[in-house]
């Protein structure tokens, strides 16, 4: 594995009386895409939310380029170049598409060249630029949520199930945008249940179960081994 940009060491997270993460150890290599896989309820979303600071770890270290960001507030972590695309999209429905994008540009005014690239991969955002984000379709809202993370070059992109509930054509559009981001050298940690998309984008994979990482390795190794998939997740990606 190449030099990790992000490392989690023995991270434990509790939510109310529930113990969700039970000592997560995870490396996310720099400039590559790591897929975080596992059954529903395994702790994948909690891991992303703990990294960005929305939930505080009970114990353990979260190292971003060697700096321990565990227990720092989300705004501080965001200013260090970490962006989250949440599962619920998290857009501001009463604000326009333009206003949503402007708020996401934490480093200053939106770079026009980067905005033109986003418009090229997500054309509806140009069309509805001045419209309230709440008026967008579900697929267009997911485009906006993803584009907000992409509006600036980030050190780390955390993406939570971007294809969930979307039509195949919209998933293809998202896949192209994420592939462009990957080719530009981005570091991405992504939760995804669509194994076809996971295979297409992932360089590495980590499988969670019961709040722990139970396997990690090359995405190609997992994708080519049906018995391993069955043992780890009770699923087969063979025909996905």
UniProtKB/TrEMBL annotation:
UniProt source species: Gemmobacter megaterium
InterPro entries: AAA+_ATPase, ABC_transporter-like_ATP-bd, BCAA_Transport_ATP-bd_LivF, P-loop_NTPase
Record has ATP-binding as a keyword: yes
One Gene Ontology MF term: ATP binding
A Pfam short name: ABC_tran
Gene3D superfamilies: P-loop containing nucleotide triphosphate hydrolases (3.40.50.300)
Similarity annotation: Belongs to the ABC transporter superfamily.
This protein's UniProt keywords: Amino-acid transport, ATP-binding, Nucleotide-binding, Transport
All copies of domain ABC transporter, residue ranges: 6-235
Highest rank taxon of the organism: Bacteria
An example Gene Ontology biological process: L-amino acid transport
Protein name: Amino acid/amide ABC transporter ATP-binding protein 2, HAAT family
């Amino acid at each position: 594995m190449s030099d990790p940009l992000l490392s989690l060491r023995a991270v434990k997270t509790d939510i109310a009386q529930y113990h969700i993460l039970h000592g997560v150890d995870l490396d996310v290599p720099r400039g590559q895409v790591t897929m975080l896989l596992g059954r529903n309820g395994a702790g994948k979303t909690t891991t992303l939310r703990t990294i960005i600071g929305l939930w505080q770890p009970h114990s353990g270290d979260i190292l971003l380029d060697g700096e321990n960001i565990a227990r720092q507030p989300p705004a501080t972590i965001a200013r260090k170049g970490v962006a989250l695309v949440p599962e619920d999209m998290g857009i501001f429905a009463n604000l326009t598409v333009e206003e949503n994008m402007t708020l996401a540009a934490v480093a200053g005014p939106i770079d026009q060249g980067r905005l033109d690239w986003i418009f090229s991969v997500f054309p509806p955002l140009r069309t509805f630029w001045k419209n309230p984000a709440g008026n967008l379709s579900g697929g267009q809202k997911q485009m906006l949520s993803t584009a907000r993370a992409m509006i600036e070059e980030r050190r780390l992109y955390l993406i939570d199930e971007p294809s969930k509930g979307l039509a195949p054509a919209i998933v293809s559009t998202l896949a192209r945008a994420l592939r462009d981001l990957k080719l530009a050298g981005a570091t991405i940690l992504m939760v995804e249940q669509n194994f076809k998309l996971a295979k297409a984008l992932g360089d590495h994979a980590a499988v969670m179960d019961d709040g722990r990482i139970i396997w990690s390795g090359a995405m190609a190794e997992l994708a080519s081994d049906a018995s391993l998939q069955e043992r780890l997740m009770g699923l087969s990606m063979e025909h996905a």
